[in-house]
Amino acid sequence: SQKIEQNSEALNIQEGKTATLTCNYTNYSPAYLQWYRQDPGRGPVFLLLIRENEKEKRKERLKVTFDTTLKQSLFHITASQPADSATYLCALDIILTGGGNKLTFGTGTQLKVEL
Amino acid sequence: EAQVTQNPRYLITVTGKKLTVTCSQNMNHEYMSWYRQDPGLGLRQIYYSMNVEVTDKGDVPEGYKVSRKEKRNFPLILESPSPNQTSLYFCASSIRHAGELFFGEGSRLTVL
Question: Exposed site from A53, A61, A72, A103, fewest CB < 10 Å?
């Protein structure tokens, strides 16, 4: 069956360190992958998109990698700050067997950055 | 300011009492979608619309209806709400199908 897996356990790190979040998937061949940030009780906010033919994408302190062989994306936040504390969602653009495509979300990983 | 606006933000209702959650976007996006978010299950798509008068079922459409009469509006209708529809609902829009999504602030619905 098709699955998108993100760590359900919260990730706690110290301020200033690099946070690394993982998104693994099985039985999908996504054309691209997106990462979103969600604060409690708020709607998700788009952060980054990476295409299948891109290995790495950066935006300020954020970096995303996409390994279609390992079926994995890593999301890094360097020099993390308490304000980075949130839940981070990955979403895969899935090509449907009947044609078309859709965005399917993982359940998210909660990140807590401590002083 | 570019935004997706949902109303109401919070609602407590009773089983069987029809309700509508409105969604409006001001970005001239063609694609709009409704999701529900439940603990441990993540965001699940209810319905989506590729353009005016074009709607289609997502992963969990049972018990819901939608309409897309205008480009900016995409209301979610619960004809006869049941307690298993208690959830946090999000409307989202995108310039195109499966592109970057802009989400509303969410509508927390409780059905007693």
Answer: A53
Q: What is the pLDDT confidence band of residue A20, given thresholds at 50, 70 and 90?
A: very high
Q: How many CB atoms lie within 10 A of CB B1?
A: 3
Phi-psi region of A99 (alpha: psi -120 to 50; beta: other; left: phi over 0): left
Q: Which two tokens stand for residue B48?
A: 């989506």
Q: Is the pLDDT of residue A40 over 80?
A: yes
Looking at chain A, the whole-number percentage of residues with pLDDT higher than 90 is 73
3-class SS shares of chain B: helix, strand, coil, % to 5: 5, 50, 45
Structure-model confidence comparison of residues A52 and A78, the more confident one: A78
CB contact under 8 A, B100 and A108: no
Chain B: give the shortest CA distance to residue A36, in Å. Answer: 9
d(Cα A27, Cα A4) in Å, to the nearest integer?
9
What is the pLDDT at residue B40?
Answer: 86
Reduced to 3 states (helix: H, G, I; strand: E, B; else coil), residue B84 is helix
Counting one residue from chain A and one from chain B, the pairs whose CB atoms sit within 8 A come to 46
Question: Average pLDDT of B78-89?
Answer: 97
Give the best residue of B23, B43, B57 to mutate against chain A (max A CB count within 10 A).
Answer: B43
The pLDDT confidence band at residue B54, using thresholds 50, 70 and 90, is very high
- Sheet of strand B76-78, all strands in order from the earlier edge strand to the far edge: B4-7, B19-25, B76-78, B65-66
